[in-house]
């Protein structure tokens, strides 16, 4: 694997096609003793009908399937293709898994001349390919940036996954997370007392470190800010350091803020399976909590797709405006919020604490390609960088074709952050890691900051596979928090 | 034979018009459930318009993606536009004065059109990634366009055909009283290929125009 990676990436050419190189990278599915899932009776008709329903209800999906001209622009843009050489990981080939069936059953040309136009019958073998290769897409949308028509493979992947769900193939990891969040309120399944305990111990830890009593309020009414973080921020490294950083900034700026037991999860895995009802249930929990607590402002913590859902989907999930949530202002990303505090001079940063570091920034795909910050289109790239530069003298960017809208996914997004997909995740990380290695070599980069829980967990796992240390990956707000001058 | 060509062209134009209108209606009717514009997302209507215009005129995204495909694709579309303009000669009466401007450029455009199609075909054949994703219809489309381009060149520089008589014929079509079409095999090949292209247009990937303008990933903005 690493030889392949070296050959591909060091020379910066796209890999040779290796058919079926990643066919073993299939996730576990619910039901069935062998974790391979089981198709429900009448699966074929159900799938074909559902495919038609999606085409009728989602203009993008129909248009994307109709209008691809097979120009090849996307073929060498996916990190999973670059990392594996498996041609079914070329975005257009991934779409074709669905497009072929759409053509066969829902278009005239595919019914009349299937072979000629690349239309294919829906078979069990094809379902096998769907359940493999639709889960080797992290829905990061890098391909769509290069498509002349903006064809968005993530829309096709989501549609395909929702069809798989409908025929009985529910991906185990995503659905376990969804069960947790619906039942208990967060992806990790942390119950209320555990959250309270964690925050209490964080308070003690920070006081021990700094001598300052920085509070981590929980369920406090009428706060200015309700901070909603991914539950990983309460549980694991380096995520929790980011949460500590946020608390220090709020403390120093004198913001009355709180977290909430009932809104202890920013993430929204409903997005990954393209399921609006999951998505709106999870979003509604946050909005209702904010309303009940009388919070002034919802601030979303460091979680990439959570921010995509909050900034791009909340409004449309609740069709008639925000359905009773109108009095709540639009959610704000934590970076935009703390950027405001620092710009206003409400928090002072001491950059010297980071003098021994050289920091780079990993744009998380869902933020960089599916969200907004500030009031200019490119503020999603500017704001996090300005924050890092405010806290650290030595900031460098990775290669231009690997950052901002061109950013490479960490390799673990979109519901792939599960152990059985480790091969997919390691090879999918290779384009990002290569860009990182370049700046390590050139500028002596010591740390890579991220603003996404999945990115952080993924890099913690995969960096050692490339001979890099797990402590290279840090939370952006950890870098800020360490530099905050507390008093 | 003239009558046969005439009915083929009538059919082709009818299928093209109704088919494309139907597709536009279908796209316009299908809802856009969520905000899925690809960042950096414009914040103003003008920003969205500018994005669509830049993609239309310069193929901005394709340029960033693949320089060769961009070069061949961009030349092809512009050359096609110029050549199509020249064909207004056959369907306008009187011929607008400004049309004279395109006559010389369109001679070059016709060669560029054909050459760029060869380039696109060679790329489709030689890049293994692109070959992998190509269906027979993708090659057929290029070959059909090549036949149109080559027969057009042949009509211009090779075989002699009385284009004044061809114009009489096409103006007759427009007036719904078809005249005689000069007997010329190359001309028949040219016209029939165009008719086939028109018929498959609404049912094939060619619908990317006008479909593109409905693309939610480019034609959406944050409020």
Strand percentage of chain B: under 5%
Oligomer, anyone? heterodimer
In whole angstroms, how far apart are the ends of chain B? 58 Å
Rounded Rg of chain B: 20 Å
CATH superfamily (homologous) name of chain B: Transmembrane di-heme cytochromes, Chain C
What is the domain tally of chain B?
1
Rounded Rg of chain A: 22 Å
The sequence of SSEs of chain A as H and E is HHHHHHHHHHHEHEHEHEHEHHHHEHEH
Poorly predicted ranges of chain B: none
Major interchain interface with per-chain residue totals: A-B, 68 and 54 residues
Strand order of the largest sheet of chain A: 2-1-3-4
Number of helices of chain B: 10
State the major sheet of chain B. none
Give the overall average pLDDT of chain A.
Answer: 95
Level-2 CATH architecture of chain B: Up-down Bundle
Low-pLDDT ranges of chain A: 5-12
Number of strands of chain B: 0
How many domains, in number, for the residues of chain A? 2
Order of helices and strands of chain B: HHHHHHHHHH
Per DSSP, what share of the residues of chain A sits in E-state strands of 2 or more residues?
under 5%
Main sheet record of chain A: 4 strands, parallel
What does this entry look like structurally?
The complex is a heterodimer of chains A (487) and B (223). Helix content of chain A is 48%, strand content 5%. Chain A is mainly α and 487 residues long. Chain A folds into 2 domains: 169 residues, Fumarate Reductase Iron-sulfur Protein, Chain B, domain 2 (Orthogonal Bundle), CATH 1.10.1060; 293 residues, no CATH class. Chain A starts with a helix and ends with a helix. Chain B has a single domain, classed as Transmembrane di-heme cytochromes, Chain C (Fumarate Reductase Cytochrome B subunit), CATH 1.20.950. Chain B is built from 10 helices and no strands. Chain B starts with a helix and ends in a 12-residue tail after the last helix. Chain B has 223 residues and is mostly helical. The longest helix of chain B is centred in the first third of the chain and has 28 residues. At the A-B interface, α2, α3, α5, α8 and α14 of A face α1, α3, α6 and α7 of B.
